[in-house]
Write a structure and sequence with these properties.
Distance between the termini: 65 Å
CATH architecture of the largest domain: 2-Layer Sandwich
CATH class of the largest domain: Alpha Beta
CATH topology of the largest domain: Chloramphenicol Acetyltransferase
Number of domains: 3
Order of helices and strands: EEEEEEEEHEEHHHEHHEEEEEEHEEEEHH
Number of helices: 9
Number of strands: 21
Length: about 400
C-alpha cells in the first residue's frame, strides 16, 4: 500500500502555525484531489485545506483544537483500505463477553479470559461488570472479590463527580476565541490604555442620512451612520497623524501611516472580527457603505481572507445598536487607538441662545496608547471629529 503524508501547508508568508478547526473527513473515507480535508484557523480566518492526493483516509493524526506548525503531518492517505482485521474484531466482540481481545504481529486474533474464581465471576455478572476492565491484584493477575468491590466504589465516585459536572459547563478556549484572547492579552501587556470620552451632536448627520436613504435604496445599499463616521474619522486622522499609526516595540519606533485603512469590529457567532476597509479617505459614503455591508456579512459567515484583516491603521467598534452609555475598548495592537461609537439618541441640549432644544447626541469613547499620544491630543482629536460630524456639508463636496 502506497502511503502519503498530507502536511500542514504554508498558507501565507507570515503564517507559521494554525489551529485545527473542523475535520471534514473520517478514517476510511475515500477522498478525491482538491476535496476539503481539514478546516484550519489562522489569524482569525477559517481556511479549508484541500487534499493533494486521491485515495483512502488511513489515519487522522490531529484532533480539533490542536495548534500545529507548517510541515506537521495531518493525515495519512493510502491507495487501498484493508478492513478485514477490523471486521474480525467486531465479529469476535459480539460473541465474547468479559474477555480480552488482542491481535498479534501476524494479524491473528487472540482471546484471553481474565483469571477469576467462579464466585468472583458470579459477583461480576450480578453487578453487570465486565471483568476484562478490572485489573487483578492476585497471583498472576487473578481478579479477587476485593478488586471487584474496589472497582465498584471507584465507579460510584466517578458518578458523583459526573453529577456535579452536569451543573457546570466547561468550554475550551479555542478557535477564534483563543486568537482573540491572545491578541487582547498582548495589547493589554504592551499598550498603555487610556480613555477619553466625548459627546457629539449628530443631528445634521441624522438629517443627511435621511435625505440620502432613498438614493442608497435605489442602489441596493444599506446606509447606516457608520460610513459617515468612518469618513469623518479619516478626515480627522489627517489632522492628527499620531492616531493613524502603529508601534513597533521591537525597534522602538512609531510608524505614521500616510494611508487611511479603517478596521471595523464585527460581532460574529465565533467572536469579534475586525475586517479592514482600505483607503476610506478616497471613497464616497455610498462606496464605504456598500463595502462595509459586504465585508461585515462575509465576516459573520467566516468567508474573509487574510488580506481583508491586515494593514489597518485605525479601528472603530460600534456598540450603539446594542446599547450602553460608553465603553473602554481594547486597542487593536499594534495600532495606536480605537474609537467606540455609541447609541444616537434624542437629548435636551441648551443652545447658544440659552434655549433648551432636542438634538440627536452620541457618546464616543477613544482608547489610545498613552505612550504615543497625550490626553490633550485625544481631546483635540474628538473635537475635530465632532466639528466634522456636526457640519457634514464637507461630504457634499465629495462624490456621494
Amino acid at each position: 500500500m502506497a502511503l502519503k503524508e498530507f502536511k500542514m501547508p504554508e498558507i501565507a508568508e507570515s503564517v507559521h502555525e494554525g489551529e485545527i478547526g473542523k475535520i471534514l473527513v473520517k478514517e476510511g473515507d475515500y477522498v478525491k484531489r482538491e476535496q476539503p480535508l481539514i478546516e484550519v484557523l489562522t489569524d482569525k480566518v477559517n481556511t479549508e485545506l484541500p487534499s493533494p492526493y486521491e485515495g483512502y483516509v488511513i489515519k487522522i493524526l490531529v484532533k480539533e483544537g490542536d495548534v500545529v506548525s507548517v510541515g506537521t503531518p495531518l493525515i495519512i492517505i493510502g491507495d487501498s483500505l484493508d478492513e478485514k482485521i477490523e471486521d474480525k474484531i467486531e465479529n469476535v466482540k459480539k460473541e465474547i463477553i468479559q474477555e480480552r481481545i488482542t491481535i498479534d504481529d501476524k494479524g491473528e486474533i487472540k482471546v484471553e479470559r481474565p483469571l477469576a474464581a467462579p464466585a468472583v465471576r458470579k459477583l461480576a455478572r450480578e453487578l453487570g461488570l465486565d471483568l476484562s476492565l478490572i485489573k487483578g491484584t492476585g497471583p498472576r493477575g487473578r481478579i479477587t472479590k476485593e478488586d471487584v468491590l474496589n472497582y465498584v466504589n471507584r465507579i460510584k465516585e466517578e458518578v458523583k463527580i459526573e453529577r456535579k459536572e452536569t451543573l457546570e459547563e466547561v468550554i475550551p478556549i479555542k478557535g477564534i476565541r483563543r486568537k482573540i484572547a491572545e491578541h487582547l492579552r498582548l495589547s493589554k501587556d504592551r499598550a498603555v490604555h487610556t480613555l477619553h470620552v466625548d459627546e457629539i451632536d449628530m443631528t445634521e448627520i441624522v438629517k443627511l442620512r435621511e435625505r440620502l436613504k432613498k438614493f442608497a435604496d435605489e442602489q441596493n445599499v444599506k446606509l447606516t451612520y457608520l460610513p459617515f463616521i468612518m469618513k469623518a474619522v479619516a478626515t480627522a486622522l489627517k489632522k492628527h497623524p499620531y492616531f493613524n499609526a502603529i508601534v513597533d516595540d521591537e525597534k522602538g519606533e512609531i510608524i505614521l501611516k500616510k494611508y487611511y485603512n479603517i478596521g471595523v469590529a464585527v460581532d460574529t457567532p465565533d467572536g469579534l472580527i475586525v475586517p479592514v476597509i482600505k483607503d476610506v479617505d478616497k471613497k464616497s459614503i455610498i462606496q464605504i457603505a456598500k463595502e462595509l455591508e459586504d465585508i461585515s456579512n462575509r465576516a459573520r459567515e467566516g468567508k474573509l481572507n487574510l488580506e481583508e484583516l491586515q494593514d489597518g491603521t485605525f479601528s472603530i467598534t460600534n456598540v450603539g445598536s446594542i446599547g450602553g452609555v460608553f465603553a473602554f475598548p481594547v486597542i487593536d495592537y499594534p495600532r495606536v487607538a480605537i474609537l467606540g461609537t455609541h447609541k444616537i439618541k434624542k437629548a435636551p441640549v441648551v443652545n447658544d441662545k440659552d434655549e433648551i432644544v432636542i438634538r440627536y447626541m452620541m457618546f464616543v469613547s477613544l482608547s489610545f496608547d498613552h505612550r504615543v499620544v497625550d490626553g490633550a491630543e485625544a481631546a483635540r482629536f474628538t473635537r475635530t471629529l465632532s466639528r466634522i460630524l456636526e457640519n457634514p456639508d464637507i461630504f457634499i463636496l465629495e462624490v456621494i
